[in-house]
Amino acid sequence: MAFVIQDPLKAMRQARGFERMDGKMIEAPSPAPSKSDVGPPEMGYGKLFLIFLGFGFMAWGGPVAQIAMIRRELVEARGWISSDRFNRLLAVMQVLPGPEAHELCVHLGMRAKGRIGGLLAGLGFMAPGFVLMLLLSWAYFALDMEGTLVGAAFLGVQAAVIALIVRAVHRIGEHVLLTLKLWGVAAACALGALAGAPFWISLPAAGAVFALFSLRQPIWAALVGVGAALACAAIVLLSPEDVSSAQATVAQSPASLPALFLSGLKAGLLTFGGAYTAIPFVRNDAVGQGWMSDAQFLDGLALSGVLPAPLIIFATFVGYVPGGPLGAVAMTAGVFLPAFAFSLLFYDRLEQVVENPRLQALLEGVAAGVVGLIAATTLELGRDTATRIDPLIVGLAIFGAALLLLYFWKSRWNVPVCILAAGAVGAALL
Predict the structure, then answer these.
(1) Is 70 exceeded by the pLDDT of residue 252?
(2) CA 233/CA 120 separation, integer angstroms
(3) Cis peptide before 128 (omega within 30 of 0)
(4) 115: closest CA among 344, 310, 279, 294?
(5) Position 360 in a domain
(6) Which of 45, 67, 119 is nearest to 337 (CA)?
(7) How far apart are CA 423 and CA 137, in angstroms?
(8) Residue 258, pLDDT above cutoff 70
(9) pLDDT tens digits, one per residue of 376-386
(10) Which helix or strand (DSSP H or E) is residue 24 part of?
(11) Is 192 part of a structural domain of the chain?
(12) Residue 10 above 70 pLDDT?
């Protein structure tokens, strides 16, 4: 499930002082205690909030850069937590839904000042990105972009965002699709999504099928798979709505605040291993229900890529489109609630839970299904974007150049530079 380190459970066991040898788990020598084990220094709530607010302003470059920054500041520079315990903590966070960097901040704030400290740390880390996205959302609709250079720039940016998602699918898939069975689960979920199958059937089925195969129950796995396929087919065939027409609607249809909150909560609960995994779930609600168009959805993703924040902050933009500032707050609260709740309430029991081999297999199957859903969503977004870019050859060139940049330039700045460069090319040529 991990996308920053390849085997979080192995890292967790190593951090707890165990190693696998000859098929058995044996206790390894405990590391010598270090000064960093003394924990955070005494401080007030206000100082704690300001520390993590400062981290929020430095949160450029995606989850890898954000986690590296937190490690540098709180493990190496300030000694709030030992390196081995930080590794164990990160391993646990990577099997939870939600942005890992934000969850790390919540837990480390809780170590310093209890649950109130965890709440303040999480709010401080997310505040800069939320405020900036709220301002950009207002500016996006305050400007008349139709037929202007700004509108052309956003068309170029949309082509680059497709490249971002393609790169993310590859990166996530490398760490999830480790067997032919997982590849099969991902392919089945992708084909189902393209046919209109609901993810609330395909994802649980993906987890159950892979878990049953892992338990050497192929007959039951086949029965679950066939049953899920029949259920999806019935829903697709009997559904009176034309999903494609809903996705093409440039709507801004009204949405209630509870609906926006629940949509964000669903995305937050299903976000495993990075914000890109939330894309199909958020789009399913936002575009499928006519709250916004695919073009606006891609623009929101692009705006989140140039901010110091977890990429999941694009949910603020999604909530703003149909619900204004209050809608943005409702959607953001729903998305980040699981990240707060798991860290504040359940961390002490999580290590025992994730060591359960049956649960591991279930989560691996769900993760493979999510990869398939992201791949299908990428194809649909790319197809829709291609119909709006004229000349198409320019859009394809932007997409290709962005993909090369993302693959070969390893830098924390590659995403914002890619988006800004694509916007400049779009403004000049589209």
Answers:
(1) no
(2) 46
(3) no
(4) 344
(5) yes
(6) 119
(7) 17
(8) yes
(9) 988 988 888 88
(10) strand 24-27
(11) yes
(12) no
Question: What gap in Å lies between CA 347 and CA 95, rounded to an integer?
Answer: 12
pLDDT in tens, 106-151: 989 988 998 899 999 999 999 999 999 999 999 888 876 666 777 7
Say what the pLDDT of residue 223 is: 92
Low-confidence winner among 53-57, 179-183, 243-247 (lowest mean pLDDT)? 243-247
50 token code pair: 């300001």
| CA dihedral sign, ordered 245, 250, 254, 256 | positive
Q: CA 373, CA 163: separation in Å to the nearest integer?
A: 16
Whole-angstrom CA distances from 10 to 5, 99, 145, 388 are 10, 21, 50, 46
Neighbours of 115 (CB within 10 A): 14
The yes-or-no verdict on residue 82 having pLDDT over 50 is yes
Question: Is residue 175 a contact partner of residue 8, using CB atoms and an 8 Å limit?
Answer: no
Q: Determine the Cα–Cα distance for residues 312 and 256; give it in Å rounded to an integer.
A: 21
**Helix 414-429 to helix 294-305 angle, to the nearest 10 degrees?**
130
- CA dist., res. 383 & res. 378, Å (int): 9
Q: How far apart are CA 385 and CA 377, in angstroms?
A: 12
Domain of 140 in residue numbering reads as: 128-429
Go through 143-179 and write b for each residue having 16 or more CB atoms within 10 A of its CB, e for each that does not.
eeeeeeebbbbbbbbbbbbbbbbbbbbebbbebbbee
List, in sequence order, every beta strand (DSSP E) within 65-149: none
**Secondary structure in 3-state letters for 371-383:** HHHHHHHHHHHHH
Assess contact for 112 and 67: CB atoms under 8 A.
Answer: no
Indicate whether 96 belongs to any domain: no
Query: Domains in the chain: how many in total?
Result: 1
Q: Which amino acid is at 179?
A: T
Size (the chain), residues: 430
> What does the block give as tokens for 383?
């197809």
DSSP of 348-363: HHHHHHHT-HHHHHHH
Collect all residues with Cβ–Cβ distance below 8 Å to 430 and sequence separation of at least 6: 152, 155, 156, 389, 390, 391, 394, 395
Answer yes or no: are the C-beta atoms of 340 and 268 closer than 8 Å.
Answer: no
Q: Which regions of 152-205 does DSSP assign to beta strands (E)?
A: none
Residue 58 belongs to a domain: no
Taking each continuous run of H as one helix and of E as one strand, the counts in the chain are 18, 2
